Task: structure prediction
Amino acid sequence: AQKVTQAQTEISVVEKEDVTLDCVYETRDTTYYLFWYKQPPSGELVFLIRRNSFDEQNEISGRYSWNFQKSTSSFNFTITASQVVDSAVYFCALSEAGSGTASKLTFGTGTRLQVTL
Amino acid sequence: DTGVSQDPRHKITKRGQNVTFRCDPISEHNRLYWYRQTLGQGPEFLTYFQNEAQLEKSRLLSDRFSAERPKGSFSTLEIQRTEQGDSAMYLCASSRTPYEKLFFGSGTQLSVL
Result:
């Protein structure tokens, strides 16, 4: 069965520091999708990125970057020059193509990021 | 595009009562999903619909839970004879196709006393 592990429960940084959120996954499928979602205090999950298992290119979007390494089954997320508005819970998630839908997600337990001034 | 809407935002009920939640997905989205999130945990999949057809139910969805999506538009999730263990955030999400990202609503927070 698939599993997502986010070992960091809480991280606290000072604004402008860089921070990396770790995600390790387990799956037996060869085709799968990895996601990161952000959950601010309002509760609504906000989509950040999706990666399929055949695309190991790292991606950068503004202050956000993602490092996907199949060899270590990891999909880590880095925020550069963190801001107070980045404070939220961040979830890594996995879906398997064999499930019939890429949207049936298995989530990790989340990492709470607190950015202070 | 008004986003996924859920109603109510909060529900407090007594153990043994029935509750019903509503989800209105983004209008052109055929897929609709229900997830449950307890404190300190990630969301857990409950069930999903393709239009009006319920395609899969998680084993987490006991017989006391039922979900419908009449006419493939809004969906309802009903919990009968609520138990304290049902206390959680119930999240609805939708997607246009099976392989596109999910858009989530703000959830319904259920507290069973």
Observations:
- The radius of gyration of chain B is 13 Å.
- Chain B touches chain A at residues 31, 33, 35, 40-45, 48, 55-56, 89, 91, 93, 95, 98-107, 109 (CB under 8 Å).
- Chain B has a mean pLDDT of 93.
- Residues 4 and 106 of chain B are 8 Å apart (CA to CA).
